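Q: Got a minute? One more chain.
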Amino acid sequence: MGHLNLPASKRNPRQWKLLDIITAIFFGLVLLFFLLVFTPLGDSMAASGRQALLLSTSDPRQRHRLVSLVELGHHHKPIEACPANSVDHMPCEDPRRNSQLSREMNLYRERHCPLPDEMPLCLIPPPPGYKIPVQWPESLHKIWHSNMPHNKIADRKGHQGWMKKQGPHFIFPGGGTMFPDGAAPYIEKLGQYIPLTGGTLRTALDMGCGVASFGGSLLSEGILALSFAPRDSHKAQIQFALERGIPAFVLMLGTRRLPFPAFAFDFIHCSRCLIPFTAYNATYFIEVDRLLRPGGYLVISGPPVQWPKQDKEWADLQAVARALCYELIAVDGNTVIWKKPDGDSCLPNQNEFGLESCDESNDPSNAWYFKLRRCVTSTSSVNGEYPVGIIPKWPDRLTRAPSRALVMKNGIDLFRADTRRWTRRVAYYKNTLNLKLGSPAVRNVMDMNAFFGGFAAALVSDPVWVMNVVPARKPLTLGVIYDRGLIGVYHDWCEPFSTYPRTYDFIHVAGIESLIKLPGSSKSRCNLVDLMVEMDRMLRPEGTVVIRDSPEAIDKVARIAYAVRWKATINFKEPESHGREKILVATKTFWKLTSSH
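A: Always. Here it is, folded:
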């Protein structure tokens, strides 16, 4: 090492060059280490490593040609499998793509979908060792480790009772960050202040839900909670929730309204969800208020409620609730419980957040890619009687025609006819088509074109939950579905859905071609091939698809079904139904990647 003491003029130029290179490499490695460990880049890169190959897109002209061949039935082999590192791919929640976006108001964690031409046309494979999921209700407490071998949550949160690896399973003790001893004692505590039993409360929203043990525990109380969380550094928390058979959805409260109608939820819950409710002039609290039914309950546990060094945030949170005339029911440790007023809030009033009521031009149930508004939704802006305590209790509310049905002309009559129609159809599905509805093989169900939720209502006695999807370009009937005590979301089926692969056992769609058409037009906005590839992504191996449509549409669907490796049969409709419909019933085959991938 003596050469380090030589005067600068005596050093060999080659020594200079070697030292510079070694020093540069050393500092470069240190910088890379800090970037990976201490910035979101590390999480983004880790989460997207499996997806790198998906970003290389083929020539759009080749893609269009392949779509046409598949639609016409001229593509005589199945669509290719996606690469092995794409098993958990969600096109609209791709960390590699989205990490380049602004972090302001969590924009980068919201949905950002590639154009169809930017997505390779391929089928998502299952991971190595994938097994048919554990059936409900056993799945609430354990799932196969090999179906989602992601140990990060178990390693980080095992001491809080979230989940643990045990032999070939992950097990779920039922805990959470704010209830490490299990959700049951926590729910019992809430029950001292909130009518959790007796049917007064039915629809709930659990924000930032972890593996959804809170929502899973509420099911035994007859409360149907939709749990959401973003795709984030915990990796796959919503995937775990859905594998357990708990209603869940990938979602971020960021710059847009959440895709639900106004006054949907009887009860909204945040347990250490870390949503900054009072930031941006209380914009996020205002969005929660839009979603909460008058007379409903808001529960926040964890920061900033009586939390060390968060006195100002806690004071601000209480000030917003006061400005909206929420009744403080209790502060119990780090948990606060408020009740929303039955009628209009006390705005306008003097408040430090500048809160004002929305004007009449604002439809509070318009919530598909709709920017958050910094105004408060008045109850008079939604027609009907829907406050908690006035709306019928569960289960009576399921079959009572809600006044929000009048969003459609003759809505009350339409509602009653729709309920009768789906009771007949579901009986035909079970008794004549011998579908697995009502059996332990079916837990997670999706209705892609739900209208008033009649299909889901006809399944109420089965051990299932239904994600009712109301297409965003159709009449906004999702409020009716929530008034019935069911759950769902708005979505445009020309885009991928916000869920992980292999999360639904049964997918149902009536009128599949209407999902891709412009309203009132025969012109398509997207194509059936992409839609059915997306359905395949969401469907579990050996899962079932039921599609009702005209004979011409069903023939086209049958051709595509072969290309996505489904085994399909075409059936006649139930004899009592009018019209020309046929019913395609398909099963997703349980295929695996070959070694060439």
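A: The longest strand covers residues 539-549.
Q: Perfect, thanks.
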